[in-house]
Amino acid sequence: xxxxxxxxxxxxxxxxxxxxxxxxxxxxxxxxxxxxxxxxxxxxxxxxxxxxxxxxxxxxxxxxxxxxxxxxxxxxxxxxxxxxxxxxxxxxxxxxxxxxxxxxxxxxxxxxxxxxxxxxxxxxxxxxxxxxxxxxxxxxxxxxxxxxxxxxxxxxxxxxxxxxxxxxxxxxxxxxxxxxxxxxxxxxxxxxxxxxxxxxxxxxxxxxxxxxxxxxxxxxxxxxxxxxxxxxxxxxxxxxxxxxxxxxxxxxxxxxxxxxxxxxxxxxxxxxxxxxxxxxxxxxxxxxxxxxxxxxxxxxxxxxxxxxxxxxxxxxxxxxxxxxxxxxxxxxxxxxxxxxxxxxxxxxxxxxxxxxxxxxxxxxxxxxxxxxxxxxxxxxxxxxxxxxxxxxxx
Amino acid sequence: xxxxxxxxxxxxxxxxxxxxxxxxxxxxxxxxxxxxxxxxxxxxxxxxxxxxxxxxxxxxxxxxxxxxxxxxxxxxxxxxxxxxxxxxxxxxxxxxxxxxxxxxxxxxxxxxxxxxxxxxxxxxxxxxxxxxxxxxxxxxxxxxxxxxxxxxxxxxxxxxxxxxxxxxxxxxxxxxxxxxxxxxxxxxxxxxxxxxxxxxxxxxxxxxxxxxxxxxxxxxxxxxxxxxxxxxxxxxxxxxxxxxxxxxxxxxxxxxxxxxxxxxxxxxxxxxxxxxxxxxxxxxxxxxxxxxxxxxx
Lengths: 394, 297
Hints:
The complex is a heterodimer of chains A (394) and B (297).
Chain A: E1 5-6, H1 15-37, H2 39-42, H3 53-65, H4 68-78, H5 88-109, H6 118-121, H7 131-160, H8 164-204, H9 219-245, H10 252-279, H11 285-288, H12 291-311, H13 313-316, H14 319-343, H15 357-380, E2 384-385
Helix pairs in contact in A: 1-15, 3-5, 3-14, 3-15, 4-5, 4-8, 4-9, 5-7, 5-15, 7-8, 8-9, 9-10, 9-14, 10-12, 10-14, 12-14
Chain B: H1 2-24, E1 39-44, H2 53-61, E2 89-94, E3 100-105, H3 114-118, E4 124-126, E5 132-134, H4 144-148, E6 155-156, E7 165-166, H5 172-176, H6 182-186, E8 192-196, H7 197-210, E9 230-233, H8 255-265, H9 269-295
Parallel strand pairs in B: 1-9
Antiparallel strand pairs in B: 1-8, 2-3, 4-5, 6-7
Helix pairs in contact in B: 1-8, 1-9
């Protein structure tokens, strides 16, 4: 992995950090309420809309935002673009956090959470027809894999530490880990390929409840392709924010070429999306579906705007505009997921859903927790590249 | 660098081909006929007088208390729709043309149920007699069954800290004792009858043939969504979509997604091949990188 990553250092308990702690504390109280009073008391979920904000955002969009590690690993390890190597560690960290918290969100979303442990263990009860089972198993495995990938920086700190036990642990584990990294990285590429596509397959079973503009046999492919684009956007987003808040130089040149890769993937996504609609003969619905037409076009406009920005050399040379481009892509991919899981899902007349306030604040608290852990990690562990002038890597 | 890239692209091409090859063979799904011991119900809307005896009998048979809603002033059993307290309900359809009909809503006990295909760990399964039942010792409460069911049948007890999935299980506990489902036992007009699936389908067709003017010309459930063990007859001039049943076509709801899923994961070959290819490419790239470093001054 990176040789020149160093802890950023500095105090943890800054004022913004305390605000994040307050938001997380509030969500803990609300979660206690959810566990004692049930889902009906704390959410707007109902029999028509059994999945709401927590699934559409925390799980489906959250894991997509956690695909930075996946997207960068494809570039670095498969296409052998070594110059992006310094992006790997921070990207894997955001992935590990995104996925861990998505897994946590599942625990409070499901009604009978005390049986969750059986999903990975009771293999004789597995229903291999269930796309959701595949998602659940892959996500669980991927969380473990991501934390194994995050182990070297943690062990590196232990190696320098004062505790003789941890020192020995690190000294014996690190070489072992480095030797087996190939197997782990290959797994870290395989698992998201499997479950991010299956997240699309999951909604195929919703059948006619999902509007035909979104319901298609290409859902798995569309989910997979868009998640790679979102992965690069997350890396641009996260790297720019880190540079801004930590007052470090922007990695504009590298992020700019990443943006170009993202733009080509987006073109591919849009081509599949539109050809599928034409092939199934439902493109007309894009003009006649009322407010769903609006969301469809909003999605398309966001994707197109982001890709168009990424193709412009002026944008690629400007950290601020690169950041805007990444935001547009994340909004586009996020909206595509929200549309598929929630907005374009219509169980029939009489049903409606809009997230309840406790539901919303629990999600906000989880995001706050994610940011807090990220801050602690980059300040205490060697995640980010040294702030010296960017070294060129062959 | 050029060599690595070529290796990488070649590797990906191999992986892609393997995925396609494993998907191409043997992805047709087996058909799901009714099991040989299948039982079912036949609801004839032309006979129903909307007395709701079946709703009460269903509560008694399944130990479920009355649902007192604001609709009934908080006094009467007055469920508005199927929910965590109600497994069976009689609704009234009134068309613009003045035609009206009662409608019994309950689980259809599909031959190829979407809920069973959805359930990760077999809490919902087609068990004896083809009856779809819920096993509380397996369910984790993920509610994918609710997302999947085209008839919106599985219901969740949202108000409970320890929630359950509630649906009609054709009074399987009574069938085990040699009795018939509560609703069919009490119906004063035999608007809903219980029996062997094959007999009921034949009976439905016989009624259609004998009184073509009385009925809407179709047995709902014979083929809809792959077929259901609960069959419906409707009045002439009132379609099944009028009665609130979805227009599903003949393909079982879970068919397409399962075919795609099975094509990608048949025997777990494609993921295994992809894993080996990914590992090889990464290993070769790393080796080339290490060599490049050594050669540098």
